[in-house]
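We treat protein structure as text, and this decision shapes the records that our systems exchange. Such a record has a labelled line for the sequence and another for the backbone structure tokens. The record that follows is passed on verbatim for readers who wish to inspect the format:
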Amino acid sequence: MLLLIMALELLFMRILVLDRLLLDRLPDLLHNL
């Protein structure tokens, strides 16, 4: 059970990090269009 919670936390953190990276890159991508 504890392993499952840790896995979910890692997944959530990864999603947050990816979301932030995408938000940081979004203006550059829009500017290139």
In short: The helical segments are 2-32. DSSP finds one helix and no strands in the chain.
